[in-house]
Specification:
By secondary structure, the protein is an alpha+beta fold. The chain folds into 2 domains: about 55 residues; about 90 residues, DNA-binding pseudobarrel domain (At1g16640 B3 domain, Beta Barrel), CATH 2.40.330.10. The protein is built from 4 helices and 9 strands. It has a 5-stranded mixed β-sheet with strand order 3-8-9-5-6, with no helix packed on it. A two-stranded antiparallel sheet has the order 1-2. About 10% of the residues have low confidence.
Amino acid sequence: MRLIHVKLEKIRNSLFVKIPDLITESLHLKEGEDIEISIHSEPVFAQGELWGDESENLSEINDIYLDISEDLHTLNMYNRIYIPEKYRFFFPPTDINFNVITNVGQLKTHLTNSGYLMKGIRAWVEMNGPLEPTDSIHIHLVNQEQKLYEMKISDRK
């Protein structure tokens, strides 16, 4: 089982859950399928849980690759990394610190409300920058319980 973050969207005065596209694709979810969501009493842990046989495909999502070509100026100029909404489920909830292993040491950061990693990122950008439009950032989940990730420039393309 893996906890994920879901968004509530209001459509015609009703609330609906938005499941990240990466999850729906990896689990081959279709409209009308039943899923099970558990709601926890503490707001920090108000996350959804997908129903199935231990969500095998979901547990395999331990890596994401960020195409930085669209947000290159912000990254190089302001030392912050934009995380598109479809990948935000991969990280702890907004403003919850987690650690990232990098080539400049271990950084403590968090995802902001606007979807950026900013805290502690300056040293990484200075060491690895300036980044180019063809670069990609590879982020690997090392340990979910310890909120530990690894980040590096990828030659995936």
